[in-house]
Amino acid sequence: MKKRWIPILSGVLALSVALAGCGNSGDASEAASTGGSASASATSTNSDGKLDKVVIQDKWLPQAQFMGYYVADKKGFYKDEGIEVEIVPGSSDFTAEDQVINGTANFGHTWYSSLLTYQESGNDLINIAQLYQKSALELVAKKDSGITSGKDLKGKKVGNWFGGNEYEIYALLGKYGYDKDKDVNLVQQDFTMDAFNNGEIDAASAMTYNELGLVVGDDESKVKDYNIIDMNDEGVAMMEDCLCVSKKWAEENKDLVVRFLRASLKGWQYACAHTDEAAQIVWDAGQSVSLEHQKWMAKKVAETVCPSGMDPKDIGKMDDTALQQTIDLGVKYGLLKSKVDLSTSVDKSYWTEATSSMGDSETAGSAAASSEAASTAA
Questions:
Q1: Dist. CA 14–CA 313, nearest whole Å
Q2: Which CATH class is domain 12-132+239-377?
Q3: For 110-176, what is the HEC assignment?
Q4: Residue 3 confidence (pLDDT)
Q5: β-strand partners of 83
Q6: What are the residue boundaries of the structural domains of the chain, listed by start?
Q7: What pLDDT, in 10s, does the model give residues 247-298?
Q8: Reported pTM
Q9: Is CATH 3.40.50.11220 what the domain over 137-234 is classified as, yes or no?
Q10: Are domains 12-132+239-377 and 137-234 of this chain identical in fold?
Q11: CA 129/CA 112 separation, integer angstroms
């Protein structure tokens, strides 16, 4: 999902992970027989044995974009950490940041670019895990349009949903020296791809894990029939889905934050290695899109959360260069009025502690799935 306005909306074991990489695992739900719950050594800190209750606010309706949390809940990873979680679907009426700020939610799943605007305004929010490792926003154009890169957009009609989703497009235009108000015709894109399919716009915004599937019909082989402008390839990518929390609340509840994050990361590892199973779990939680589209979406989300060659244990890791680029582009193209200090915008300590206490045995399902799937594909 693009943002809240869009309704369509994982000795030998460690080596196998490093060699296989998440992005190459594909769907390993049938290839792997391992998995199950997290470490039995993780227990609730409550002396009376009751679970700590927390709420996570997603950006939108139940879909594979958030599959790590649903899988962690279904597989009992939160319970093993002494946590009872409520996963709240998003709405166009509020943001995940708003819900964390007003205390309705403890954790929020949002775009980093969006979080920056709240931080600039002085809100007590921090990024504790960067789940999506690259931008998933693309522009798609038909082969006969002549549009192959940002340099070809002058005089063209370009669609976007706006509402905070437009800044990478602004950065792309700026890269080629185009005035967004004079050199291109930026138009409001609706929640379907109908305008693009009907030829009403020359280039349409599409998330790799959602709207692109609406164009190619969930058949990835059909992508070759279109020209794709990737924000990562163009060097104007802004970081998207991350996990935010109130800095003050996190400091006061450090152990709980670490336990929640550890369980969530296990959920994401498992989900990225078992995409069909993860899609089914999400679909069971709420049929916001069809099961087949959920499966397609889950595979594409896995490629963004754990790109090819990435160790599953690094899911959620924060790349300073990519995050700083988001800040710099945000200032240059109007998302931010002034630079947010990266050192205060993110706090890596929770991710570091959560992952340092995750042994190889706790990612066995993800590792085995990646290894076996890679061997099968080879």
A1: 10
A2: alpha beta
A3: EEHHHHHHHHHCCCCEEEEEECCCCCCEEEEEEHHHCCCCHHHCCCCEEEECCCCCCHHHHHHHHHC
A4: 36
A5: 52
A6: 12-132+239-377, 137-234
A7: 999 999 999 999 999 999 999 999 999 999 999 999 999 988 889 999 999 9
A8: 0.83
A9: no
A10: yes
A11: 10
